Each structure stands twice: as structure tokens, then as C-alpha cells.
Amino acid sequence: MRTELTRSPRLLAPSIYRYATVGGLLIHLAFVVFFHLLGYSFMAWVNIGSTVCYAAAMLILKRERMGWWGCLIASELLIYAVTATVYMGWNAGFHYYLFFVLYGAYVMQTSKQATRTFVILSVIAYVLLYHYAPAGMASGVVPVCRTLHYWNLISTLAYTTLLSYYYRQSIEHTMANLHDAIQELELLSRTDPLTGLRNRRMIYEKLQTARLRHETDGEPFSILLADIDGFKQVNDRYGHNCGDAAIKHCASLIRNTAGAEALAVRWGGEEFLVLLQGIRLQEAVTLAERIRVEAERQPFRYEGQPIPITLTLGVAAYRAGQTVDACIHLADVALIEGKRAGKNRVVASR
To answer: Considering just the CA atoms, what is the radius of gyration of the chain in Å?
Structure first.
């Protein structure tokens, strides 16, 4: 079976990998001393080999090769559990490490194929050890076997609990980040990237809400459509970068002049739409005129060169029984009329 090593997304905080690796290294160092004092030189050498594996795992962690790290740790646990159980006996409790491999394989940074491989090998090893491993030590004292059994049981449970805790914390953190990312994407889907104004998708929802409020509570609302005069000539003469800068300038001007209660959006190209809730036609015309005057008065400069920018605006108030599109159409007709009449003016729908 071919085992692939992939750099999958990190499931846990980097600290837990370091803690687990350092903890495993220290445990095996302690086992080296423990088995040496008991006279089990073979197990002492086995733990020296495991210590080397954990030292290598630390180097792999520094390079952030998480797939290799997971496979190395899982392999060490699997081989060590089998070797120690065969040599020391089932009652020493080293077979518990196989449960840790079963659990850890799913949260370590290994590929799906590697995870399946370690799970299958762990199950096979556990069944074979259960049937064929000796019950007690090859030679030794029963209290030592009992001490090892409790130590291996407690350490496996402790590591599993710790890993579960960090895994849950990581999942909660990931879900919080995912929620924030979804909200940000939702905002981006409703925002024009050039001007920072909302786009058509957003305004249609607000327009429908305003229409329903008018139908139920009688609250008025009006629509302004503003278009940059001579925008094609600006683009042709000064380039598209200048055209984009002019659009941003007008977007900022409209947003600031209309005020916080108004909702300004980029309707398309060099055209803007402003929703004025609670505003009747005459008040909307007055605001549109103020926007027009500000556009004429405030200088627009591109690369230090002043470029005259003016706006033509069409205004329409929503009428009972209309559709939202019909109201927008009336504002658009007024805008076209203003363009034909010489631009740089405000025209109210009839």
C-alpha cells in the first residue's frame, strides 16, 4: 500500500505538537533510565531508538513538514507498542499505545491513506498481541509490571484527553474564523471593490424593504440616479486609471454629501444610485442639487492636474402600487432628460 504524505491544513495549534513531541522524548528518556536500572538492556536500547525518533520529529516540526511528523510519530508508537508488549508482556500495558495510534491518526497531519494504513495496522497488531503476547514479563517482578501497566494507562489517557481538548479548541477557533470569513465574503459580495460602496445586490434588498414599509406604514422614499458627465472623454483623454480615480472621487462626494441616513451604491459604470428613506420628492431634489453643487465646487485632481467633473441627477419618489424597477426607471428617464438638456443639472420625474 502506497502511503502519501501531504501538507494538510493544520488542525491543532503548533504548541500542542511541540508539547507532545517534547513530552514523548522525555518519557522515553525516563524509560531508558528505568529499564537500565532494572537490567532490561534490550528495552533500554528500544527507548533510546524512540528518543532518537522524537528528536528527529522536533527537527521535522521546525520545517513544518506535518505529514512526515505525523507518520513518524504514529510509526514510532506502533512499533514501540508491539515491541514492548511482545518483550515485557501484555500485563505491562504497552498495548494501550495502540489506542493512542488509533485516535491520533485522525488528528495528526497525515493523509487519508496514511491514516487508514495506521488504523488497520493498529487493529491487526492489537488482535495479534491479544492472542499471542505473553501475559507477564519475560522475567521480573509483578509490582514492576503493575506499575508499568498503570503508568502506560494513565499516560495514554492523559495524552488522549489533552489532544482532545486542544482539538476541540482548534475546531471552535476554526469555526469562529469560518464564521468571520463567511461574513466578510457576504460583505464583499455586496460591495463594489473600486469605490467601497454597496452594489446592486445590496440595494435591491433595501429597496424591497423600503417598498414594503411604504405599503404597510406609508413611509415615503425617493431614489437619486447620478451620472458623471463626459466620463468617456475623461477616460479617452487621461486613461482608465484616471477614470477609476474620478469614479472613486464622485463616490466619496456622494456618500459624504448624502449623509449617513442615505444608502449610496455604485449602480454600474460611472452611475450611482442613492436610496433616501423617509424622504419625499422635493426634499430629494434639494439633496440632489446639493450633491450637484458639491461636485461642481470640489476640485478633482489626477497626478496634480485639475480635471473638471460634474454630475447629472435624476430624482423619483416611490408611488403606491409601483414596483421598485418602475421607480428606478422614472429616475433614469429624468436623468436622461437632464443629459439631453445640457448636463450638470437635477431633473425630477413627472
So the answer is: 36
In a domain, 273, yes or no: yes
Biggest CA-to-CA distance, the chain? 107
**Which residues neighbour 116 within 8 Å (Cβ) at sequence distance 6 or greater?**
none
Q: Which residue range is the domain that position 330 belongs to? A: 200-348
Rounded to two decimals, what is the model's pTM? 0.55
pLDDT tens track for 114-158: 888 888 999 999 999 999 988 876 445 567 788 889 999 998 888
Asked if pLDDT for residue 2 goes beyond 70, the answer is no
208 and 73 inside one domain: no
Q: Pick the catalytic residue: 215, 261, 270, 303?
A: 270
* CA separation for the pair 220, 214 (Å, rounded): 6
The answer to whether residues 313 and 231 belong to one domain is yes
139: which 3 cell numbers?
A: 522475567
CB 129 within 8 A of CB 85: yes
Establish whether 205 is a catalytic residue. Answer: no
Residue 29 has what pLDDT?
95
- For 146-205, the DSSP string reads HHHHHHHHHHHHHHHHHHHHHHHHHHHHHHHHHHHHHHHHHHHHTB-TTT--B-HHHHHH
CA angle 26, 27, 31 (to 5 degrees): 115
Name the residue among 64, 51, 63 with its Cα closest to residue 23.
51
Query: Do 213 and 284 fall into the same domain?
Result: yes
Q: How far is CA 295 from CA 103, 214, 235, 347, in A?
A: 66, 31, 18, 16
Beta carbons of 336 and 342 less than 8 angstroms apart? no
